[in-house]
Design goal:
Length: 216
């Protein structure tokens, strides 16, 4: 067999592997939606795609690596094309998340675990937050310009916006009857756009220290 024959024979297998991984990710999302974070076992996903658990591990060696891949895929699906993300659309995203508790639960559980050293999701979330903070700064700049009504720069306000979005998810997951996540987020956007008045302190509101990362 020639070198060209070897390369030709490998190409279809590579394409099949990519297709299989995509199928596994779709199946994992379905299982999460049906059973939640804890119910999304490797065995359940393997059964859904017609693989043995060992066969699944060939593509994703641990449950954590599988779930991180699912979260990355979810980010791709949720992404707005080009510079289409606006402040009002963030409210719609929060409403959408309220309709998929299994995905939000998985994201929140992985995020909480990722703060420990050596966790497989740590790098993913560290890099993700850098991009998200930069994207939120762009959204705020498009809405308010170089200063919000409070006097904060978009770069200083961006971590607060991200913290509210993710923090509300935890509260909502723990007490969905008590916490109306979309309404609470809209209330925060109202506060964000309010002028605190002449007596409010704006110390340290000089030039922001944005990450400079341009999100996709």
């Amino acid at each position: 067999m020639s070198y060209g024959d070897v390369m030709t024979s490998k190409a279809p297998r590579s394409a099949r592997s990519v297709e299989r991984r995509a199928e596994i990710l779709r199946a994992t999302l379905e299982v999460i939606a049906e059973r939640g974070y804890r119910g999304a076992s490797l065995a359940a996903v393997a059964e859904r795609v017609g693989l043995t658990q060992q066969g699944l591990l060939h593509h994703f060696p641990t449950k954590e690596t599988l779930l991180v891949a699912v979260m990355a895929e979810r980010d791709q699906w949720d992404a707005m094309p080009g510079t289409g993300l606006r402040l009002d659309l963030l409210g719609q995203l929060v409403e959408y998340n309220a309709m998929r508790p299994g995905i939000v639960q998985t994201f929140s559980a992985l995020l909480g675990e990722s703060v420990t050293e050596g966790h497989p999701a740590r790098e993913f979330f560290t890099e993700r937050y850098e991009v998200v903070r930069a994207n939120m700064a762009q959204v705020l700049r498009a809405e308010y310009g170089e200063r919000l009504p409070s006097g904060l720069t978009p770069e200083r306000a961006a971590p607060l916006l991200v913290a509210v979005m993710d923090g509300l998810q935890y509260q909502w997951l723990l007490a969905p009857e008590s916490v109306d996540m979309p309404t609470a987020f809209r209330d925060f956007l109202t506060l964000l756009g309010e002028d605190p008045g002449p007596g409010a302190s704006s110390s340290g509101s000089g030039s922001g220290s944005g990450s400079g990362v341009s999100g996709g």
